[in-house]
Amino acid sequence: MKLIIASNNRHKISEIKSMLGVRFETVWGMAEAGLELEVDEDRDTLEGNAQKKAEEVFALADSMGLLESGDAVLADDTGLLVDALNGAPGVRSARYATDGHDDAANRRKLLEALDGVPMEERGAHFATAMALVRKDAPMIRATGRVYGRIINEERGEMGFGYDSLFLYEPAGLTFAEMTADEKNGVSHRRNALALVLAALESE
Ligand code: IMP
């Protein structure tokens, strides 16, 4: 069976590919599948955006004859929710600082927004909403989370997005200081994907 990951984000695609195991014989990102589509992420929840992305990419892939019975499209919409900011940037995480998608500007804006906030009030969590849309089978949806703290300067070179500001306290490391395997063992994305895979296995 084939899985198309409804994303052009190479970090996301690589994390999902390495966590998938052997459930699908072929796993493609959108570029590998030859799909070009800019989905407007205009829903007001991560779950709504994940479902919209999965459905639109599924429709395009299906119209191109790429999908056989059982094949699937998986979308991931992720946000960082900071307690002291009432859950911001949340569903707006990608476009927090600018209308484009500028991770460095987003991190700077987050540090500014939390300037002066003491460490004990800097709790935050990542949430990943996933939607798996399948040919000839019902959709599966799940949300995974991981809890941590936003530190006051960047640490680490690995990962992407907000990883260098997100302290995963059990390890005493930011996600950008953890190897891909370490992050993938505990992350929001892993927790969402584990729920999706469990739902598939239980059918
Ligand atoms: P989206 O899911 O692609 O819309 O991502 C939303 C925002 O969160 C973007 O700014 C991403 O860079 C960031 N992001 C997504 N996943 C992660 C992650 O695993 N770690 C850190 N930042 C992430």
Keywords:
single chain, about 200 residues, alpha/beta, Maf protein, 7-stranded mixed β-sheet, 5 helices, 7 strands, about 30% helix, globular, binds inosinic acid
Strands ordered across the widest β-sheet: 2-1-3-4-5-6-7
β content, as a range?
A: 15-25%
Structural class: alpha/beta
The percent range for helix content is 25-40%
Shape designation: globular
pLDDT averaged residue by residue = 97
Q: Could you give the count of β-strands?
A: 7
User: Could you say how many structural domains there are in total?
Assistant: 1
Radius of gyration: 17 Å
Uncertain regions spanning at least 5 consecutive residues: none
Termini separation: 16 Å
Q: Count up the helices.
A: 5
Largest sheet at a glance? 7 strands, mixed
Order of helices and strands: EHEHEHEEEEHH
CATH class: Alpha Beta
Bound molecules: inosinic acid
Can you name the CATH architecture?
Alpha-Beta Complex
What's the CATH topology name? Answer: Maf protein
Write the layout of secondary structure elements.
Layout: E1 2-5, H1 10-19, E2 26-29, H2 46-63, E3 72-82, H3 103-113, E4 123-134, E5 137-150, E6 166-168, E7 173-174, H4 180-186, H5 188-201
Parallel strand pairs: 1-2, 1-3
Antiparallel strand pairs: 3-4, 4-5, 5-6, 6-7
The structure holds inosinic acid (IMP).
How would you summarize this macromolecular structure in one to three sentences?
The chain has 203 residues and is an alpha/beta fold.
Overall description:
The chain has one domain: Maf protein, CATH 3.90.950.10. About 30% of the residues lie in helices and about 25% in strands. The chain is built from five helices and seven strands; from the N terminus they run βαβαβαββββαα. The protein is globular. Bound molecules: inosinic acid.
